[in-house]
Design brief:
With about 110 residues, the chain is an all-alpha fold. It has three helices and no strands.
């Protein structure tokens, strides 16, 4: 089996010789896997900040970073606002794709 491309905006550290879709000629086709922790609406800001601090600390641990890298992930510990903005951006992006492809619920 030979990898043809990775779907992210940048080459994967796990597959440095494999081009991105854009490098392979398929522009505007990037897609990342996004993992994060969500809390119910109305969760106290102090709880959100504490969770964020703890998660950022865990993601910074060398053994956690090594394990995630071995699984092909590039861990990024962002702020709650940055993560919320990314979710909004992803919803907008995929809504445009759905509209452009005229995809309908069945």
């Amino acid at each position: 089996m030979r990898a043809l491309a990775v779907t992210g905006a940048h080459r994967s550290p796990a597959l440095p010789d494999v081009p991105t879709l854009a490098e392979a000629g398929a522009r505007d086709q990037e897609s990342d896997i996004i993992l994060g922790i969500l809390v119910p609406a109305g969760t106290a800001q102090g709880i959100i900040e504490r969770l964020n601090r703890e998660i950022v600390g865990i993601v910074a641990l060398p053994d956690v970073r090594e394990r995630l890298a071995a699984l092909g992930f590039e861990p990024i510990a962002s702020t709650p606002k940055e993560f919320a903005d990314r979710i909004t951006w992803e919803i907008d992006k995929w809504a445009r794709v759905i509209r452009a492809a005229n995809i309908k619920a069945q």
